[in-house]
Design goal:
Layout lengths: L2 E11 L4 H9 L7 E2 L6 E3 L6 H7 L1 E11 L3 H5 L4 E6 L2 E4 L19 E2 L9 H7 L2 H6 L8 E5 L10 E5 L18 H12 L4 E5 L11 E2 H18 L4 E4 L1 E2 L7 H4 L5 H12 L2 E5 L32 E3 L8 E2 L9
Parallel strand pairs: 7-16, 8-10, 8-12, 9-10, 12-14, 14-15
Antiparallel strand pairs: 1-4, 1-5, 2-4, 3-4, 6-11, 6-13
Length: 336
């Protein structure tokens, strides 16, 4: 029987601690269900239609992680304290793009375009000047007092001004990145941020440092990483920004996350925005002209940005170069 990783929304009495929440989850009588007892339950704001019901019952919702036999998922949903069950999708950094040898010959949304992403079109100084950062610097603004949360594979503290963070992996705490192919991705993202904002500090929120072999991360890790940032922001108003250059390449990996804004991770992103954190997401690497091979048929307008990456309250960032060319692998929204 095929197993599926899931995130379970569980109703608990207000103020129930993590230990008792896990005990409640372990008492769910569904065959084939395994609760991850190492995953600390995360509180989540309920969907709007449930707010009054929960308030009158003195209850709240926490998120539990586990695995279940796929054909038993619907039965799990019928349990009295289960609000819903969602896919705990695998997530990956939007890293090096392996494109087809011959880019798609079709009209892009912008011309000219660039389908040669491995050839640099300038250095980080050129980018800063193109964006007008030098003009901002001249006014005395270089990011003093700003902390940027880089949500990724980890940021090397020997390269970047890492001042804290969170990791699901005790072997690779904040300030380290994974020693695997693509593990440098977070350090690259942090370098880009500090290159524009030289006095800013970095929180290394390593949500793509999964303990699972050969898997960068899961949405459940991203939920916990965002919760860490929310809790920290409530203490001292940092981080002011959460930068995310990762996502899901194909809708079929988790349709309930790809298109449903009620997925717990997307709701957690909205929680962060509501308290004042700026959240940015890369659009993705599935643009129509030269998409990553990982996208397969999910590329081009309307079928290349999934989940929180395209939420209307998120700042979704596409790719271009200093020659003012659209990068042909940059994912596209629903426009032409």
């Amino acid at each position: 029987m095929s197993k599926k990783r899931v995130i379970i929304e569980l109703r608990t009495k207000m103020g129930t601690g993590p230990v008792d929440s896990l005990k409640m989850a372990s008492e769910l009588k569904v065959e084939g269900l395994t609760i991850d007892k190492d995953y600390e339950p995360v509180p989540i704001e309920p969907a709007e239609e449930m707010v009054k019901t929960l308030e009158s019952a003195g209850e709240e919702i926490v998120l539990i992680r586990g695995e279940i036999d796929e054909d038993m998922e619907d039965q799990l949903r019928t349990q009295p304290k289960v609000v819903n069950v969602w896919t705990d999708a695998r997530i990956e950094p939007f890293g090096p793009v392996e494109i087809s040898p011959f880019p798609f010959e079709s009209a892009g949304p912008c011309t000219p375009y660039d389908c040669d992403p491995r050839t640099a079109k300038g250095d980080i100084g050129d980018v800063a000047r193109y964006l007008g950062c030098d003009q901002i610097w001249a006014e005395g603004y270089r990011g003093e007092g700003i902390v940027i949360g880089i949500c990724d594979t980890g940021c090397d503290k020997n390269v970047l001004p890492v001042t804290g963070g969170w990791s699901p992996n005790p072997f690779f705490p904040p300030g380290t990145h994974l020693p695997v192919s693509g593990g440098w991705h977070g350090t690259m993202c942090g370098t880009d941020a500090v290159g524009m904002c030289s006095q800013a500090k970095i929180y290394d929120i390593g949500l793509l440092k999964s303990m699972a072999p050969d898997i960068a991360g899961f949405l459940s890790d991203a939920i916990t990483g965002f919760q860490w940032a929310i809790d920290h922001y409530k203490q001292d108003n940092t981080p002011q920004i959460l930068s995310n250059s990762w996502g899901m390449y194909q809708k079929s990996f988790a349709p309930d996350y790809a298109e449903n804004a009620n997925h717990p991770f997307t709701r957690k992103v909205v929680e962060a925005i509501k308290i004042g954190i700026i959240v940015t997401f890369a659009a993705g690497n599935c643009g129509a002209l030269c998409p990553s091979k990982s996208c397969e048929s999910d590329n081009g307008p309307g079928k290349s940005i999934w989940g929180a990456n395209g939420h209307p309250e998120v700042i979704t960032v596409g790719a271009a170069n200093t020659n003012e060319e659209w990068i042909g692998y940059s994912s596209q929204g629903c426009g032409p």
